[in-house]
Amino acid sequence: MTELESIKNRVVVVGAGAVGACCAAYLQRDGNDVTIFDPDGFGRGCSEGTVGIFATNIIAPASSADGVRAMLAAARNPDLDTLMINKEFLPEFLPWLASFVATSGPLAFARGNEALKEAQRLSMPALREILDEDTFAENMQERGWIAVYETEENFQAAEADRKMRRKHGVALKELDAQQLREIEPSLPDGLQFATLYPNEFHTANVHKLVSAIGEVALRNGATLKEQLVDSIEPQKDGTFRVRAGGEEVIADKVVIAAGAYSAKFAEELGSPVLHCAERGYGVTFEGADVGLNSPVTLTKHRCVIAPMEAGFHVISSGEFAPIDTLPDERHQERLIAIALEMYPELAGRNVTRWSGWRSTMPDGLPVIDESPVHKGVFYAFGHSHLGLTQAGITGAVISALASGRKPAMDNTPFKVDRFSLTPAY
Ligand SMILES: Cc1cc2nc3c(=O)[nH]c(=O)nc-3n(C[C@H](O)[C@H](O)[C@H](O)COP(=O)(O)OP(=O)(O)OC[C@H]3O[C@@H](n4cnc5c(N)ncnc54)[C@H](O)[C@@H]3O)c2cc1C
Asked: Is residue 91 one of the residues assigned to a domain?
C-alpha cells in the first residue's frame, strides 16, 4: 500500500456510471464527504452505450406472461436472437430463471408493477433536483419516444400493453402511417402504425450528462479516484477498509454502484444476490444524421434507433451469460444490416461497435437498500434496462437511507435480500 488515508465520516461510492454519479451527487449535497472510485471516470460502463432514453413509460416488469414465454423460448433456442441465454451457463442460470417465472405470478407481478411505476414516477423529478435548470436543458430534450409496427396485426397485439399503460396514466398517442410520416419523415415507407410516448426525455450524449451529474458532486467537494476497488473489508469499529489500486481508505459508509460488477461485492459482504449480467449490443454510424427526430423502437427487429451526438445509434439484445464471456460480434453485424436496409446512405460510414453488461434481477427491479448484514453498506445496482432512467431516484433514496431520513420512495420492493427462490415482499 502506498497510502493510508483515514477518512472518518466519509462515504465511498464504488462505480461512476449513471447510478454511482447520482448517488455521489446526492450524498455530497446532503453533507457527506464522498470519494468515488471508478477506473474509467464518470459515465462509461453500461451507461455509455445506452440510447439515452428516460423511459418512464415502462411500468411493467420484464417478467410478464409474454416475458416468461420469450425467456423460456430463449432457453431452448440455439440460434442467434435478440434474447439469448448462453447454453453452457444454463444450469447455473436456472435459479434466476425460476425466480423470474415466480415473479410473473399475478400477485408478485402486480406488486412489481406498482413498485416500478413509483420508481418511474419519481425518476425525472429526482434528476431535476440535482441538476440546475441550465445543465438540465443543455443535456435533456423532451423528444418523445416512438414504437413502430409494420402490420396492423402486430399493432393490435400490443393493445393490451397500451391499455395497461393508459390505466396507469402513461401519456401515449396512436399514430397511423400518415401521422408517423409527419413526425418522422426520415423513416422508410411500410411502417403502418406507431405508438408515440410524447413526454419522454432523451439525452443525445450520455457520457456528457453523467459527467455533468458527477461534476455536481465534485463541485460540492467530492473526490473522484480513477481506480478499481479490489476489496471492501468491514472493520471491528464499524468502518470499512477500501483497497483500490495499491491505495487504501477507511470509510464509514460504502455505496456499491458498480453495475453488473456489484454482485461480487454483495456476495463478499454477506448478501449473495440472484443477479445476472445481461449483455446489450450497439453500433454507432459515426457522425451520421439520417434526419431522425426522436428515439424509435423497431418492434419487428426488437431494436432501438436513436439520433445521438456521436452519430446514428442502434441498440438491441439481452444476452444472459457469465460476465467474462466474450462478445458475439454477429449481434452488431445484424444491427448494421438493419440500419443499412433502412438508410442505405449510411453505407461507407465508420461504425463504432459497443457492448456492455446490464445488471438484472429476476423481478426486473433494482436493488436500492442498506445491507442487512453490515450497517453502513448500501447497494444501488440491478437496474437492468432502466438504469439511466432510475439513476436520480436511486441516488435520492440511497442518500436518504445513509442519512437516516425517510426516503422519498419506499424501498421495501428493492431490498437486497428479497430473493431466496421467491420474493420475500
Ligand atoms: C444497449 C443498451 C441500451 C440501454 N438503453 C437505456 C436507455 O435508453 N435508458 C435507460 O434508462 N437505460 C438503458 N440501458 C440500461 C442502462 O445502461 C443501465 O441500467 C445503466 O447503465 C446502469 O448504470 P450503473 O451506473 O448501475 O452501471 P454502469 O453504467 O455499468 O456503471 C458501473 C460502473 O462501475 C465501475 N466499476 C465496476 N467495478 C468496479 C470496481 N471494482 N471499482 C470501481 N468501479 C467499478 C465500472 O467501471 C462502471 O463505470 C441500456 C442498456 C444497454 C445495454
From this structure: no
Q: Ligand 1 atom 18: the closest Cα is on which residue?
A: 387
Answer yes or no: is 209 within a domain: yes
* Residue 16 neighbours by CB distance under 10 Å: 31
Give which of 185, 172, 117 is closest to 146, Cα–Cα. 172
Long-range CB contacts for residues 157-161, cutoff 8 Å, separation at least 24: 158/195, 158/299, 161/60
The total of structural domains in the chain comes to 1
pLDDT at 134 over 60: yes
Out of 276, 358, 360, mutate this one to test ligand 1's pocket (max ligand atoms within 8 Å of CB): namely: 358
| pLDDT, mean over the chain | 94
* Residue 251 resides in a domain: yes
Residue 375 structural domain = 1-63+103-141+201-274+363-425
Beta-sheet pairing, 296-298 with 145-149? parallel
* CATH (domain of 47): 3.50.50.60
Whether the per-residue pLDDT at 425 is higher than 80: the answer is: no
- What pTM, to 2 d.p., does this model score? 0.96
CB 209 within 8 A of CB 140: yes
Beta carbon of 356 within 6 Å of any ligand 1 atom: yes
H or E element at residue 100: helix 90-102
Whether residue 382 lies inside any domain: the answer is yes
pLDDT at 4: 40
Between CA 225 and CA 241 the distance in angstroms is: 15
The SS3 assignment for 144 reads: coil
Share of the chain above pLDDT 70, in %: 97
- Res. 423: pLDDT tops 80: no
